[in-house]
């Protein structure tokens, strides 16, 4: 079986209509085509980001450095900490005028940062390790937003899906290049079902809930914190199948910066990282107020649901080690273990290494 990253990163004309795909090829093809669309959408989102978003430091006497920050996946409560840092003036105090744009999954965020259209953004470390190994995406992790992966499949309870093997032969939707899509072969192998039996439907983050309600798909790729959002959007009980239970040991989202940014502007990387992590800590400690701040900037987001997402996220972000050493903590052994899991399963031609994927000196580490 070809690596899933080749589904995402190599343009294979077989999936453009010249040869009818079947079986595993069909899944690979749909992820591939969708990934191209997702990347175009990510670039469009960055270039067309609303100019009406509040700008920090309107009366500041010093010049602020413009920064574009991408969320991980849409504009949900789990990313509210970025708007907290904006609203509270943490970015401004660090010398930045920050524009926040919605992300379209880990691979798309990493690609946008490597291309220079986005300066910083969070992405799942395992997905980034695979992207770095297979396509040479020139980004590094400078801090961890969550210590453990939150990737999961979500399904309606009424679907009858209760365990990972129930996904065999089913249809799921997600943004191409998301952690759930990229690591599906690994998840399926560990869980004991054939990944090629799962039909993939490329989708935007905003459309996932409607696809579930309309029963056009059986499950969606999400984060476990998305349960309150999907429960409210669908009006039904939601089942979560976390990746962490099937593939234990994977770390969660890491804050990314490009190799170029780290090399040429380390001072900006350090200041921005500190400001963002300050926003994360405040958001985790004050989920209700953080939800209200998100709602101020993104009115379509319900502040209570956003707060509920942050409450769930707390156990992933604020571990005993984080409480002792500080937010953003990077456990080098755990990142190395995540990279090893990826290398040992996917066998990339150019295996990723810790030095390729992690830049020390910007957040607490052990």
Could you outline the blueprint of secondary structure elements for this entry?
Elements: H1 4-9, H2 23-47, E1 65-70, E2 73-74, H3 80-87, H4 90-93, E3 96-101, E4 103-104, H5 106-115, E5 120-124, H6 125-135, E6 139-144, E7 151-156, E8 171-174, H7 179-182, H8 184-191, E9 199-202, H9 208-213, E10 219-223, H10 227-234, E11 238-242, H11 243-246, E12 253-258, H12 259-264, H13 266-285, H14 287-297, H15 303-317, H16 320-325, H17 332-346, H18 354-357
Task: Compute the CA-based radius of gyration.
Answer: 19 Å
CATH topology grouping of the largest domain? D-Maltodextrin-Binding Protein, domain 2
Global outline: globular
Care to count the β-strands? 12
Distance between the termini: 37 Å
User: How would a textbook summarize the main sheet?
Assistant: 5 strands, mixed
When the domains are counted, the total is 2
CATH class of the largest domain: Alpha Beta
Number of helical segments with 4 or more residues: 18
* Element-by-element helix/strand order: HHEEHHEEHEHEEEHHEHEHEHEHHHHHHH
Low-confidence stretches: 1-60
Mean pLDDT: 86
How is this structure best described in words?
It is a single chain. The chain is of the alpha/beta class and about 375 residues long. The protein folds into two domains: about 40-145 and about 250-355, Periplasmic binding protein-like II (D-Maltodextrin-Binding Protein, domain 2), CATH 3.40.190; about 150-245, D-Maltodextrin-Binding Protein, domain 2 (3-Layer(aba) Sandwich), CATH 3.40.190. It is built from 18 helices and twelve strands. The strands form four sheets. A five-stranded mixed beta sheet has the order 9-8-10-7-11. Strands 5-12-6 form a three-stranded antiparallel beta sheet.
């Amino acid at each position: 079986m070809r690596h899933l990253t080749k589904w995402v990163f190599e343009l294979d004309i077989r999936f453009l209509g010249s040869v009818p795909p079947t079986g595993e090829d069909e899944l690979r093809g749909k992820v591939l085509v969708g990934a191209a669309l997702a990347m175009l959408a990510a670039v469009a989102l960055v270039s067309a980001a609303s100019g009406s978003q509040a700008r920090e430091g309107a009366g500041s006497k010093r010049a602020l450095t413009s920064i574009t920050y991408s969320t991980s996946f849409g504009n949900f409560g789990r990313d509210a900490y970025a708007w907290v840092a904006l609203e509270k003036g943490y970015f401004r105090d660090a010398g930045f005028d920050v524009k926040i744009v919605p992300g379209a999954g880990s691979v798309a965020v990493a690609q946008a940062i490597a291309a220079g259209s986005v300066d910083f953004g969070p992405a799942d470390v395992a997905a980034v390790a695979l992207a770095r190994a297979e396509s040479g995406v020139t980004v590094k992790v400078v801090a961890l937003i969550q210590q453990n992966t939150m990737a999961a499949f979500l399904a309606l309870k009424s679907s009858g899906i209760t365990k990972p093997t129930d996904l065999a032969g089913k249809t799921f939707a997600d943004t191409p290049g998301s952690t759930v899509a990229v690591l599906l072969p690994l998840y399926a192998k560990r869980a004991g079902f054939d990944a090629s039996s799962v039909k993939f439907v490329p989708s935007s983050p905003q459309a996932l809930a409607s696809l579930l309600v309309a029963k056009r798909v059986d499950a969606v790729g999400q984060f476990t914190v998305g349960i309150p959002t999907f429960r409210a959007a669908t009006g039904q009980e939601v089942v979560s199948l976390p990746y962490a239970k099937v593939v234990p040991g994977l770390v969660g989202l890491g804050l990314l910066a490009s190799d170029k940014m780290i090399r040429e502007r380390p001072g900006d990387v350090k200041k921005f990282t500190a400001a963002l992590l300050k926003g994360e800590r405040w958001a985790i400690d004050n989920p209700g107020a953080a939800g209200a701040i998100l709602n101020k900037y993104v009115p379509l987001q319900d502040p209570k649901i956003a707060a509920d997402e942050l409450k769930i996220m707390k156990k992933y972000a604020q571990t005993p080690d984080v409480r002792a050493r500080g937010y953003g903590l990077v456990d080098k052994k755990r990142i190395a273990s995540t990279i090893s899991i990826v290398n040992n399963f996917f066998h990339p031609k150019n295996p990723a290494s810790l030095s390729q994927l992690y830049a020390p000196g910007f957040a607490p580490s052990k």
